[in-house]
């Protein structure tokens, strides 16, 4: 039904992440997407202002905001399953592409071209920054869980940190060194 895309997006708050893990605090894809969009904005600004880049921040942030929308249809596929082997990954990409097509059909025809680029992966630097922001959001979640006494996220934390560093993005390295430690100060310490 044309226009139902927007009602479907409101369902993002019902789709929990980290389904295979015991969580001390549940996280849904709506709140995750907001955090990824904010982190993407930061990474783009770091790239453009500190490292002489010329990425389109607005385009990247919009992609980040919608990067998990296909999960409205597919659900959140746990990373160990999604990346178990290339065959599963390729099959999941096809399922995700079919979900995007289905979602695009739920957008009024005269608006589809505006949503197509934010529902599909971008080419180039913007998509790399969205992926880095997505991994950073996962790292933050892992650290928060560990700090809450939940050791179930320890291996995921180590693997996620390793994958962020392996991306070789200066912007992500700046985040890890300068900004990530600030997440774990008290409110008074952060604002004082």
What labels describe this entry?
single chain; 192 residues; Hypothetical protein af1432
How many β-strand stretches?
Answer: 0
Q: What structural category characterises the helix and strand content?
A: mainly alpha
Radius of gyration equals: 17 Å
Largest sheet: none
- Count of all domains: 1
Give the helix proportion (percent range): 55-70%
Describe the global form. Answer: globular
**In DSSP terms, counting alpha (H) and pi (I) runs of 4 or more, how many helices?**
11
Structure description:
By secondary structure, the chain is mainly α. It has a single domain, classed as Orthogonal Bundle (Hypothetical protein af1432), CATH 1.10.3210. Helices cover 65% and strands 0% of the residues. The protein has 11 helices and no strands. Helix 2 runs antiparallel to helix 3 and helix 8 runs antiparallel to helix 9. It starts with a helix and ends with a helix. The relative contact order is 0.15. The mean pLDDT is 92.
């Amino acid at each position: 039904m044309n226009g139902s895309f927007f009602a479907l997006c409101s369902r993002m708050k019902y789709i929990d992440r980290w389904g295979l893990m015991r969580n001390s605090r549940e996280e849904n894809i709506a709140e995750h997407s907001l955090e990824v969009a904010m982190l993407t904005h930061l990474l783009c600004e770091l790239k453009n202002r500190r490292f002489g880049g010329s990425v389109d921040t607005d385009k990247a942030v919009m992609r980040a905001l919608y990067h998990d929308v296909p999960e409205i249809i597919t659900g959140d596929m746990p990373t160990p399953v999604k990346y178990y082997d290339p065959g599963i990954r390729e099959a999941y990409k096809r399922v995700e592409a079919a979900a995007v097509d289905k979602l695009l059909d739920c957008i009024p025809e005269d608006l589809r071209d505006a949503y197509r680029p934010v529902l599909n992966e971008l080419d180039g630097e913007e998509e790399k920054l969205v992926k880095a922001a997505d991994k950073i959001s996962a790292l933050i979640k892992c650290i928060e869980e560990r700090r809450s006494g939940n050791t179930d996220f320890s291996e995921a934390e180590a693997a996620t940190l390793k994958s962020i560093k392996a991306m070789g993005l200066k912007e992500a390295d700046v985040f890890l060194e300068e900004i990530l430690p600030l997440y774990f100060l008290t409110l008074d310490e952060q604002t004082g």
